[in-house]
Amino acid sequence: MIQIQVNEPGGPESMKLVETHLPEPGPGQALVRIEASGVNYIDVYFRTGQYPAERPITIGMEAAGQVTSVGDGVTEFAPGDRVAYAMSRGSYASYAVVPVSLLVKVPEEVTSQTAAAAMLQGMTAHYLTHSTFPIKVGDKVLVHAAAGGAGLMVVQMAKSLGAHVLGTVSTDAKADLARAAGCDDVIPYTREDFVAATKKLVGAVDVVYDSVGATTFLKGFDILRPRGTMVLFGQSSGPVAPLDPQVLNAKGSLFLTRPSLGHHVAKREELLWRAGDVLSWAASGKLEVRIDKTYPLEDAALAHRALESRATSGKLLLIP
Fold first, then answer.
1. pLDDT per residue over 176-217, tens digit each?
2. pTM
3. Residue 134: partners with Cβ closer than 8 Å, 6 or more residues away
4. Which are the contacts of 201, defined by CB distance < 8 A and separation ≥ 6?
5. What distance in Å separates the CA atoms of residue 116 and residue 316, rounded to the nearest whole number?
6. Cα–Cα distance for residue pair 244/188, rounded to 1 Å
7. Structurally, how many domains does the chain consist of?
8. Which of 120, 156, 176, 203 has the fewest beta carbons under 10 Å from its own?
9. Are 262 and 51 contacting, i.e. CB atoms less than 8 angstroms apart?
């Protein structure tokens, strides 16, 4: 099998394609032949060493493909099953051993590429809109990077729940995508201050979904209503500085949370709920999963450069 590994954390060039032995699944595991692997910012964090890991570091947290063999005690899955998963590192590869507790079956109406593109960001959008801040009809929400892979899904789910959705984007082309996904108001942050624009459009919002981090975080507090919620779930522009909790009081008794997907799919029933919703919505057309570009596995560095440039609109995939 082939796999992307990182021996010394660094830039995209630190990822190397290597040939390695085909692993055998152990008890409670399955060997999956990967047909598509999703590219996410968490992969960048592992590649750069921001998230420490044993070396050689394997990269990739989600994929879809077909079960080729299973370990002892596995009864829920069998060779030939089409499956997808997230939150198991090492998906930049042609095969991966995955705990069956993380696997879900893929509906026949959903392609492997769509499933791989939907799992991590789709379940992230699901917990953000259904659990972290459960959106109600009439809520006003602002989504940063609204035309990104996660942003487009957050926008769609927020709109389906009855929210008034504002989104920030960098280009006119991304503005069109955000509107098509359901944004009621689109703010081109490169030309317009999003705080002033939000206040002019709606006054204040109930929740801010921020995957950008350093460049947007503090300003986001200025558009929240009293007792509003700031949800920081990424840091594509860099990590935020330490915050004095007194700021939350001064800005209106605000709530701040820094959630992660792992804590929202830790139980099997919760994983099946979120993944089941996402994949069934993708199958029915209720959720559009936009794939921006696919790359051969050996071009993982190009995919990371594209992701880090923040020029992408939708999901990037690697194809072994």
1. 999 999 999 999 998 999 999 999 999 999 999 999 999 999
2. 0.94
3. none
4. 166, 185, 187
5. 10
6. 30
7. 2
8. 203
9. no
